[in-house]
Amino acid sequence: MTSQYDALIIGGGHNGLVCAFYLARAGLKVRVLERHAVVGGAAVTEEFHPGFRNSVASYTVSLLQPKIIADMRLADHGYRVIERPISNFLPQPDGGYLKLGGGLAQTQAEFRKFSKRDAEILPAYYEALEAVADVLRDLSLKTPPNLGDGVRTLIDAARQGRQLAKLPLEHQRNVLDLFVKSARTFLDGWFESEPVKAAFGFDAVVGNFASPDTPGSAYVLLHHVFGEVNGKKGAWGHAVGGMGAITQAMARACQAAGVEISLEAPVARLLVEGGKTVGVALESGEEIPARAVAANVGPRLLYERIVSPDDLSPEFRRRIRAFKVGSGTFRMNVALSHLPRFTALPAPGEHLQSGIIIAPTLDYMDRAFTDAKQLGMSREPIVEMLIPSIVDDSLAPPGKHVASLFCQQFAPELPGGRSWDDAREEAADLIVATVDRHAPGFAASVIARQIHSPLDLERRFGLSGGDIMHGNMTLDQLWSARPMLGHGAYRGPIKGLYMCGAGTHPGGGVTGGPGHNAAREMLADRSLLGRVLRRA
To answer: What is the residue-wise DSSP string for 75-121?
Structure first.
């Protein structure tokens, strides 16, 4: 066995790199173990056709914590994001369209095309969401109260609950609405126009295998409001060089802090002696000793494939089996001979630099989910298209482009025992045809495509059920209950085992929050005060 490390990180995705950075900055000897030939997890950039490069899975920037960007000095390591001029563009079946973003006045002008009332109430809606989002942004970098921690549980719960209690009553009502209501019910309370409700409701089904009518789907809408780009709250942007440029910048920051990164080093199992974590064994057979291990993989993958069932209680195993996964996501990249021309707005413009959303109404989104439940895939899928090569010419040859197609409502498992290996091309054809209906000629412009079905996402990135969030973002799997009550503070059921991935608070997206928070708890456990508090 090699010399002992203070901490090993299983998985070199963005949260694992963030966790490793903070541990190394505090003086610990840290090693990241990544199974692939490049770090980044789902946030990687690669060439998928000669001359064409793009982000492979995660595809856009907003939720990455500003504190992490600053602490890791990512800008010094090549991090650069170009803000979208508008957030989203939604073509409508009647040939019209709605553009969201670009400032309050511009969005209100768009809304007036559909409803004068909706335009007038928009500032109040933004104020309501932002008041709640501000509190939850702050909580996202705090460790949830952990059931079973005695006095500390009460102290943490009181401290974090106080922030919500300080909100005016009307905003406390909004908190309740957002956590328990469906996206449709919540938006019906604000707006009357179907395109306007669709513009906001789309966020409720992103990475969420559910209908906008599903209770709790309003929270997923809120989760996507937390972010900011270059200091502008709620903005979204393109990472120059693709999402892999972010994780490469993180890797450089880690190495500068002293982190050792091992590529093509897949972990086979956790090593446990006397109920305590003592290291890991690689698939090669090499055993690496460590005082602590932090897993940047989903809870299902960690506890069903890496940790021996003999080291877990029957009750814990039962609950992990019940941990819900499956985001209903199908991900494609396409190489294009030319830019698409949308019937609703054929001339090039700012709309092509936005998120192009093919989901014109909440009813459309609900039908997509119903189809996916019955047939495995929606006959009219929800599609978000981004064309990052418009602002980043490093991604495609001159005059040509790459587009990300991020698609919702594709079941993790197909009915009738059918495999996604047999259906992936059919689904890809369906998605391209869906875009082509709104932008005639799009299908003919596709030179090549890279396809990731839910099964592909599971195989390649270790995302159980193809779940981009590492687990459903439902009320029973949030905050202290992510991944389950009693283990919501980043500590696993085995001493010395920690969790630092998106299957912990604050959840999915390229945020860095789980990695940041897990590192803080690991460092606290190494201190005398931290050990005292853990026993309190």
So the answer is: GGGT--EEE-SSSEEEE-TTS-EEEE-S-HHHHHHHHHTT-HHHHHH
Beta-sheet pairing, 81-83 with 237-239 = antiparallel
Confidence of residue 221 (pLDDT cuts 50, 70, 90): confident
Q: Say if residues 79 and 72 touch (Cβ distance below 8 Å).
A: no
- Neighbour count for residue 240 (Cβ, 10 Å): 17
Give the pLDDT confidence of 119-148 residue by residue, as tens digits.
999 999 999 988 888 888 888 999 998 876
User: Which pLDDT tens digit goes with each residue over 83-119?
Assistant: 999 999 999 999 999 999 999 999 999 999 999 999 9
Q: Check: CATH 3.50.50.60 for 7-47+58-81+241-322+473-535?
A: yes
Phi, psi of 276 (to 5 degrees): -130, 140
Q: Among residues 116, 86, 110, 106, which one has the least CA distance to residue 98?
A: 110
Beta-carbon contacts of 513 under 8 Å, excluding residues fewer than 6 positions away, are 15, 65, 68, 140, 141, 505, 506
- Given a contact cutoff of 8 angstroms between Cβ atoms, the answer to whether 470 and 299 are in contact is yes
Q: Is residue 483 reached through a cis peptide bond, with omega within 30 degrees of 0 on the bond before it?
A: yes
80-100: b (≥16 Cβ within 10 Å) or e: bbbbbbbbbbbbbeeeebbbb
Q: Is the pLDDT of residue 532 over 60?
A: no
421: number of Cβ within 10 Å: 11
More confident residue, 130 or 332: 332
Res 155: pLDDT: 62
User: Residues 503, 299: contact at Cβ < 8 Å?
Assistant: yes
**If DSSP codes are grouped into helix, strand and coil, which group holds residue 413?**
coil
CATH class of 326-465: alpha beta
What residue spans define the domains of the chain?
7-47+58-81+241-322+473-535, 85-233, 326-465
d(CA 320, CA 303): 7
**pTM of the predicted model, to two decimals?**
0.94
CA atoms within 13 A on the CB side of 185: 16
Tokens for 333, please give them. 């990249």
Q: Could you tell me which residues come within 8 angstroms of residue 27 by beta carbon, excluding any fewer than 6 positions away?
A: none
